[in-house]
Known about the structure:
Elements: E1 2-5, E2 20-24, H1 28-45, E3 46-47, E4 56-60, H2 62-71, H3 76-85, H4 103-111, H5 113-126, H6 133-141, H7 152-162, E5 177-184, E6 190-193, H8 203-210, E7 220-222, E8 225-229, H9 239-243, E9 248-252, H10 260-265, H11 278-305, E10 310-314, H12 321-325, H13 334-351, H14 353-361, E11 366-367, H15 369-372, H16 392-411
Parallel strand pairs: 2-4, 2-9, 4-5, 9-10
Antiparallel strand pairs: 1-10, 3-11, 5-6, 5-8, 7-8
Helix pairs in contact: 1-2, 1-3, 1-13, 2-8, 7-8
Amino acid sequence: MLIVQPATRPVRRSKTRSMIGLAVAGGGPIGGMYELGALRAMEEAIEGLDLTRMDVYVGVSSGAFLSAGLANRLSTAEMCRIFLTEDSDQAQFRPETFLRPALGEFGRRLLRVPGVLGAWISDLIRKPLDTNWSDVLGRLGTLLPTGLFDNAAIESFLRGVFESHGRTNDFRELRRKLFVVGVDLDTGQTVRFGSAHYDHVPISKAVQASAALPGLYPPVEIDGRWYVDGALRRTLHASVALEQGCKLVIGVNPLVPFDAELAQRNGRQVPESLMEGGLPAVLSQTFRTLLRSRMQVGIEKYQRQYENADLVLFEPSPDDVEMFFTNVFSYQSRVRVAEHAYRATLSDLHARFDILAPLFARHGLRLRPEIVSDANRELMTGLGMRPHRRSDATTRLRRALDELDQSIGTRH
């Protein structure tokens, strides 16, 4: 599904490209793979759109992985090789990295057991009539771990990616603006890593914090503060790119509420009610609905506050069975989901060609009809041959030459 919100006072078409921003929402590992497939389709279908040369990047949760990679000149093709085919010389991805038990967190909670039990027994002896089951459950709740899986290995993986092959793990050394959104656990306030006062935080650490979904991953400590998933406050955070002066913002959101009735009308095989899916299905639908409602409020505000900016948002369709019933944390499905997103994105671009072509043209971009109308085009075949292995020095030199070439082209 494609949401197009044209500017109420569009900018005039100019010879130079407008400032363009990219905002990528969260959605767990599978949501990230959907976003990767969608981004790959956009880059192939929109001439002039280089996702490694955007003016502003905004990433939340799993979207922060992709935004940080793109800002670091890691192409969509290379990220497909890293996360989908595992055929990259840039990084060795292992799905189990994201599912390692948080043994350290379990250990810390176990160390608290004697103190908690001792305090409870003491209160029981002194005030036997004042103790009730709610008090007992409250005390035992403090012994539960704050996350099931260890996200320290995730930070280590990202640090290795960003500190090699001519990339950087420092916001201040990036040529483009990157903002990774997290939430301060103790205040509930949004924090934009990469902005003033927060740009000293390593990019890998900021992404780890932004993706710390409570219950699954422990909060992340940075400078004595604890941070959790940035999606808790807002879904897309496209306003960050708009505030930076972007006249076109492209957004990707992989999580939308599922419409079972629409799916049934379209001939999809689905349960009569999501109740049949038990607690996971109910929680998933609830979470998606909350995210969606907040996004709709934000989009309406964008149109009023930023009259000169266009917003194009890519999402799954409400009847997308593939995205709703695929386990959000299933890595075995990542290739299938990415391919599905790739085809859905091309289909959306084709269906809205008449609206999108002039909109993109205002910003110096061209929608390629030969790509979006190709029903046989596939994600994997578009990756081509794996590039030859380069040393760090060669990679840095090539990027410097690319930047010089772009600078000369812009001046001409």
